[in-house]
């Protein structure tokens, strides 16, 4: 939870702009989803291994990515 709060605070401090790591991780998650390698609820394991993250940090990134996808779907009326 603390890491998620830090991600949100960093995002807000930068005027709503994503950090380079955030962009890279979100793109990685998009690519992983498109490839169909795993259920996205388990994607945190891929982040943990490929980005050398703590499990909590990886889970928080996946949660933020899912929230972002949900907001985008709402904007499109899906």
Could you name the key traits of this structure?
78 residues; mainly alpha
Write the topology of this structure.
Elements (H helix, E strand, L loop, with lengths): L1 H12 L6 H16 L7 H8 L4 H22 L2
Helix pairs in contact: 3-4
- % residues in beta strands: under 5%
Shape annotation: globular
Helix content percent band: over 70%
Parts with pLDDT < 50 across at least 5 consecutive residues: none
Radius of gyration: 12 Å
Oligomer: single chain
Task: Count all strands and give the number.
Answer: 0
User: H/E element string?
Assistant: HHHH
Span of the ends, CA to CA: 29 Å
On the 0-100 scale, what is the average pLDDT?
Answer: 82
Largest sheet: none
- Structural class by secondary-structure content: mainly alpha
Number of helices: 4
Please explain how this structure is put together.
This protein is 74% helix and 0% strand. By secondary structure, it is mostly helical. The radius of gyration is 12 Å and the shape is globular. It starts with a helix and ends with a helix. The model has no long low-confidence stretch (mean pLDDT 82).
Task: Kindly summarize this structure in a few lines.
With 78 residues, the chain is mainly α. The protein is built from four helices and no strands.
């Amino acid at each position: 939870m603390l890491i998620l709060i830090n991600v949100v605070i960093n995002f807000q401090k930068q005027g709503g702009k994503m950090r380079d790591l955030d962009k890279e991780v979100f793109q990685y998650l998009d690519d992983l989803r498109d490839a169909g390698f795993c259920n996205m609820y388990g994607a945190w394991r891929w982040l943990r291994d490929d980005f050398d993250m703590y499990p909590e940090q990886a889970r928080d990134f996946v949660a933020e990515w899912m929230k972002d996808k949900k907001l985008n779907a709402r904007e499109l009326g899906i």
